[in-house]
């Protein structure tokens, strides 16, 4: 569960987020849309406890940020356009390292399980730097679900992926989201967003301007609406 | 949503996990150690050809020449060690882990210290052979260890700051060297004391400076690292 009230984030004199109100319940897959510079990544970084809010209240998985950040991190998985992985370690070593930091019991079997989930069991002993961009992104997802988090944040996970890799990632994201987790994803890819999301929030001018449930709007309407937002 | 507490990872085991990760990665790539080593060996080679020293002067400049070499090589290592974390977004991966941020500081500092010790373990014998000076003096080696701990504790903190900037390669030495002057002066004076066979009363004040500086900077780093790495 995520609950954000009147969130303001200021960099210098500029309000990047100017009073964001947002909530998401378990099982919900919220796609956060918005033009470049709208504050999507800043918003996700605050939810991930990587950045402090200037004002407002942020509750993630039942814990308050920033005061209970360690508890939030224990229940949170993050995938960004950067893989957050070490190229000079193997896939297995990367997951083992993060497994130690997350204090995962039965680490070996859990690593085996998540590598299977993202289809990388056969490459577990290969160095990550030899992986394609798509494989790195899949391993990044394995890292993010290693500790079985309640909340997952995806920040533009399709950046730099070709068609095949994107399709494979679709399947992995769906299986990750199907476990009743709260998922928030930023994306510019409306077709994929429509396929994966259960709700679409538009962040613009530092605020959530619109929140649309999937059943309330078809792809064409969403596309038309989003084009109007981008056009200002 | 349940507020059930989950057990956190052990503090010291987490530190060791970060250090082991750095050492394993370096064992494969060798990019950090090889850069530090080649640089250090080139510096002492340049000293060898440019400073044609007699035996008396040799002993007098040894400590200074070695500490200049260690501090420049150390800067190379510190820069690279944090840049590896930053460039692939791995620093965010570490910051997302449910461990105290000081764990990251101590883990990185320990691995940086290990790299520094490896370089020193190779450079000191090479220097001793080239200049025909006896450096196998326990006191001298102890000072080298103490000085390295101080240098790396300040360096790890400052490199975590400078890595966030575009000019990190330039910024690190500019910020670091003024802060480590007390360490370098104390380490050179104490090392000289051992190399020139001075009395303990002449050496001990510099050892005390090193000890106090180490304690202060380890404590400061422990307290402020959280603020340094957070946006």
Description:
- The complex is a heterodimer of chains A (232) and B (231).
- Chain A contains eight helices and ten strands.
- Chain A is an alpha/beta fold and 232 residues long.
- In chain A, the strands form two sheets. A six-stranded mixed beta sheet of chain A has the order 6-7-8-3-9-10, with helices on both faces. In chain A, strands 2-1-4-5 form a four-stranded antiparallel beta sheet.
- In chain A, strand 1 and strand 2 (14-24) form a beta hairpin.
- With 231 residues, chain B is mainly α.
- In chain B, 83% of the residues lie in helices and 0% in strands.
- Chain B is built from eight helices and no strands.
- Chain B is globular, with a radius of gyration of 19 Å.
- Chain A binds chain B through residues 1, 26, 45, 48-52, 61-63, 70-71, 73-76, 78, 80, 82-89, 93, 97-98, 100-103, 127, 143, 150, and chain B through 1-3, 5-10, 13-14, 17-18, 21, 24-26, 28-29, 84, 88-90, 92-100, 230-231.
Jot down its keywords:
heterodimer, A: 232 residues, alpha/beta, 36% helix, B: 231 residues, mainly alpha, 8 helices
- In spatial order, strands of the major sheet of chain A run 6-7-8-3-9-10
For the biggest sheet of chain A, the summary is: 6 strands, mixed
Helix/sheet category of chain A? alpha/beta
Mean pLDDT of chain B comes to 91
In sequence order, what are the helices and strands of chain A, one letter per element? EEEHEEHEHHHEHEHEEH
Q: How many structural domains can be distinguished in the coordinates of chain B?
A: 1
Between the first and last Cα atoms of chain B, what is the distance in angstroms?
Answer: 28 Å
By DSSP (H or I, 4+ residues per run), the number of helices of chain A equals 8
SSE order of chain B in H/E notation? HHHHHHHH
What coarse outline of chain A follows from CA principal-axis ratios? globular
Amount of helix of chain A: 25-40%
Estimated share of beta-strand residues of chain B = under 5%
Biggest interface reads: A-B, 37 and 34 residues
Radius of gyration of chain B in whole Å, from Cα? 19 Å
**Helical residue percent of chain B?**
over 70%
> What global shape of chain B is seen?
globular
Number of alpha- plus pi-helical segments of chain B = 8
Low-pLDDT stretches of chain B are: none
